[in-house]
Amino acid sequence: MVHSIVDHMNQDHADAIAAMLQAFGESADGAAIGAVEASEVRITGISPEVMTVEFGETGSTRAATIEFRPPIDPPESVRARLVTMTREARQVLQGQPRSGD
User: Which CATH number fits domain 2-91: 3.30.365.10, 3.40.50.980, 3.20.180.10, 3.40.50.300?
Assistant: First the structure.
């Protein structure tokens, strides 16, 4: 199930991935990501605690993580969580607080 969601997100929702990455993503050193182009992002993995995302130019990509707060449980709720996080990310990028913050 998660694999099909990752495929779907990568094929049809790069803009949502980019929004979540910009709003909530951290690089390996813990730094915020900042602006990225939607065409340069893709999910590489999802666990209950974190989503890993690859972004950047072809041949020069970087990895980032987006933490799930709280962890996803049950695993079948990953789709609903991504929808909620996309909505929250777009609010954050427009200067509004994240739900629950």
Answer: 3.20.180.10
What are the start-end ranges of the H helices in 1-101? 2-12, 14-24, 78-93
Q: Compute the average pLDDT of residues 25-40.
A: 79
CA 53 to CA 41: how far, in whole Å?
7
The two tokens of residue 101 are 């913050």
Give me the count of residues in the chain: 101
Residue type, 1: M
What's residue 2's pLDDT? 80
Q: What is the model's pTM? A: 0.87
